[in-house]
Design brief:
By secondary structure, this protein is an alpha+beta fold. About 50% of the residues lie in helices and about 10% in strands. The protein has a four-stranded mixed sheet. Strand 3 (about 100) and strand 4 form a beta hairpin.
């Protein structure tokens, strides 16, 4: 993510229009999103396509920076009472980690409120990084950190999709606010990376909106992210 933030508003408008009118375009097939018990939410799953050329070292560095910036952001917003997520963990196999006794699946990222940790399938996340770019790393970490903040604030929506779209909005606010204060910067291709990533993790078109584990269509997810990016946390209902 590098400088050119002045271009972002027009790009968000254009890309939102593309995503919202993409009902006839193919979306990657994926299983419906699932959440372990006691977990506010998961980013979602999807076939992220062929690998690119970025290195594990770059991926690890971006994840560390994204964690640091998320902690800085929420400490600024919540003040002295803020407590960082206890731990961020990686795994590679189904059931290698669990949340409240329920095994975490491959190809996913979750926040587990029972243990106050974020965990992600490192192979899946690295494949996403190589295919979609570094901006998606900030979205992934920002979304899961948003679930941790929901837990800290006692936010519990009636339907999963409401919880997930609010977390997308909060991730957008996190990235947008840190671009505006120049902690992060954005290139035009970063916006495309985020749009592609949100399309990849959107629900299957047949997923009912009220189903447990529903996260939202690609269009809904990108719109929620764009709302937070442009208008900050006020647009997210906080």
């Amino acid at each position: 993510m590098r400088a050119r933030p002045a271009q972002l508003r027009a790009l968000l408008v254009a890309l939102t229009a593309v995503v919202l009118t993409a009902g006839c375009m193919p979306v990657p097939e994926q299983p419906p999103g699932s959440r372990p018990a006691a977990t506010p939410g998961a980013t979602g799953t999807g076939d992220l396509g062929p690998e690119g050329t970025d290195t594990p070292e770059e991926f690890e560095q971006d994840m560390r920076v994204a964690q640091h910036v998320a902690e800085l952001y929420w400490s600024q917003r919540l003040g002295s009472g803020f407590q960082p997520v206890r731990e961020i963990l990686t795994y590679e196999r189904d059931g290698e980690l669990d949340c409240a006794g329920q095994p975490l699946p491959r190809n996913n990222a979750v926040y587990c409120s029972a243990g106050d940790f974020i965990a992600y399938d490192v192979n899946w996340a690295f494949a996403a990084f190589r295919q979609l770019g570094d901006a998606f790393v900030y979205y992934l970490l920002g979304h899961e950190y948003a679930h941790a903040i929901q837990a800290r604030l006692g936010i519990r929506k009636e339907f999963t999709i409401e919880q997930e779209l609010q977390a997308d909005c909060m991730a957008g606010a996190f990235i947008g606010d840190k671009v505006r204060d120049k902690t992060l910067s954005m290139e035009s291709d970063d916006t495309k990376e985020l749009a592609d990533g949100l399309e990849a993790v959107g629900d299957d078109p047949d997923q009912p909106w009220f189903a447990p584990g529903a996260h939202g269509s690609p269009g809904q997810r990108f719109q929620s992210f764009a709302d937070g990016y442009e208008e900050s946390l006020e647009r997210c209902g906080l």
